[in-house]
Amino acid sequence: MVMAFGKLNIKGFTLVEVLAGLIIAGILSAILASVINQGIQTSQALLEERDSSIHKAALRRIIHRDIKNMEVRTSIKPETSGFSLITSHNILTSNPLPVTVNWNFSNGKIVRSEENEELLYSAEQIIHQDLNSYELDFFCMTQDRWISLDNWLLIAERGEPVGLRLRIQFKDQKPFAIIENARKIQ
Q1: Residues 84-89: contacts with CB within 8 Å, 24+ apart?
Q2: Strands 82-87 vs 2-4: parallel, antiparallel or unpaired
Q3: Is 185 helix (H, G, I), strand (E, B) or coil?
Q4: Among 85, 87, 75, which residue's Cα sits nearest to residue 159?
Q5: Distance in Å from the first CA to the final CA of the chain
Q6: How many domains is the chain partitioned into structurally?
Q7: Is the residue at 25 inside a domain?
Q8: Three-state SS at 148
């Protein structure tokens, strides 16, 4: 201790200065934690969006390939919870092999199954498991309009569908649509 003019002269910080420093450090730490938390949430949202985009693109690609490789003189056949078609796009071999493909959109899942009875071959893929809702429409050339799956199954004179429109919404995501021309030039 050094005495100067009758008072103690101690070098250091006062209690008020220490408390002010702690308060400022606490505020800066809270701001930093908030920024880091927001960055983590944004990163997670971007990863979820990326994964969703990958699943949507895969679904579009598989349906497109099935319809693009549809056998000549065949058409899409609307069914109770989806549609079927005969295509050479299969998962058994990289070579063209005619298979009957059934797309099913029931029970909150999108399921693609394929089979070839001559080869006793069948396979099933669950394309997506978080299906919230779907609307499936077919384009009727004779009526020049889109007809919902339910109505299509009720109409007796409808011809063959020449287009497919599938509107899908997965859980916690925005809806999206897939539209395909199903008309084969024969």
Answers
A1: 85/182, 89/65
A2: unpaired
A3: coil
A4: 75
A5: 105
A6: 1
A7: no
A8: strand
Beta carbons of 117 and 99 less than 8 angstroms apart: no
Domain range for 121 is 50-181
Classify residue 32: in a domain, yes or no.
Answer: no
pTM: 0.75
Which residues, including other chains, have CB under 8 Å from residue 176's CB and lie 6 or more apart? 56, 167, 168, 169
54-101, pLDDT tens digit by residue? 888 999 999 999 999 998 888 899 999 999 999 988 877 777 889 999
Give the up-direction half-sphere exposure of residue 7: CA atoms within 13 A in the CB hemisphere: 4
Rg of the chain taking only CA atoms, in angstroms: 31
- Total residues belonging to the chain: 186
Residue 34 forms part of a structural domain: no
DSSP 30-43: HHHHHHHHHHHHHH
Helix (H, G, I), strand (E, B) or coil at 69: coil
Residues 6+ apart with CB under 8 A from 47: none
| Integer Cα distance of 65 and 170 in angstroms | 22
pLDDT per residue as tens digits for the range 29-59: 999 999 999 999 999 989 988 888 888 899 9
Residue 135 counted as domain residue: yes
CA dihedral 19→24→27→33, nearest 10 degrees, is -110
